Amino acid sequence: MIRETLKSSTFLNENMKSLIIPIEKVAHVQQNNSLEHALLVLVKSGYTAIPVLDRDSKLNGVISKALILDSILGLERIELDRLHTFKVSDVMNSKLATLKMSGTFSKALALSINNPFICMTDDDGAFKGILTRSSLLVYLNQELFQKK
Ligand code: AMP
């Protein structure tokens, strides 16, 4: 009963445009940046993962602190010199969670299970910004418990 009521709620089919962090506010790196640069951006921004873009702001992948740390682990020690020799493209994950700007809340919610953020694109596939897991939770909390 509760499940049926919830499933018929209109908010599930709303698009997420108002929740998107626009491209100009998204921290990112480029494929040919060094791992050292990427690690600096990640640590300074406080984010665990950020998108990798090319010069035309096209999406190439995702780079994370975990991927970088994994790539510099030697057998017995952390090999810091690899931070200079490896590029972002050597270790990034090219699998991305993407959703069109017109995508619905329910699609975004499903994608957010395995992705801390979703890359939002226009109809031509151009990157427009990101939708974070926390913004989806804030929205859900508002719809379920704060709206009268
Ligand atoms: P949150 O749900 O707010 O914790 O955000 C989830 C993840 O999205 C963060 O851990 C970052 O990896 C990424 N993220 C959030 N905001 C930004 C931003 N402005 N630029 C780049 N990545 C971000």
Strand and helix map with partners:
Elements: H1 2-7, E1 21-22, E2 29-30, H2 35-45, E3 49-53, E4 59-64, H3 65-71, H4 82-85, H5 88-91, E5 98-100, H6 105-112, E6 117-121, E7 127-132, H7 133-146
Parallel strand pairs: 2-3, 5-6
Antiparallel strand pairs: 1-7, 3-4, 6-7
Organism: Anaerobacillus isosaccharinicus
Pfam family, one: CBS
InterPro entries: CBS_CbpB, CBS_dom, CBS_dom_sf, Diverse_CBS-Domain
Keywords:
7 strands, alpha/beta, CBS-domain, four-stranded mixed sheet, three-stranded mixed sheet, 7 helices, elongated, single chain, 148 residues, binds adenosine monophosphate
Describe this structure in words.
The protein is α/β, with parallel strands linked by helices. It has one domain (10-146): CBS-domain. It is 36% helix and 20% strand. The protein is built from seven helices and seven strands, in the order αββαββαααβαββα. The longest helix has 14 residues, at 133-146. The radius of gyration is 18 Å and the shape is elongated. It binds adenosine monophosphate. Adenosine monophosphate binds at residues 21, 25-27, 47-50, 116-117, 130, 132-134. Residues 20-80 form the CBS domain. This is CBS domain-containing protein. It comes from Anaerobacillus isosaccharinicus. Keywords: CBS domain.
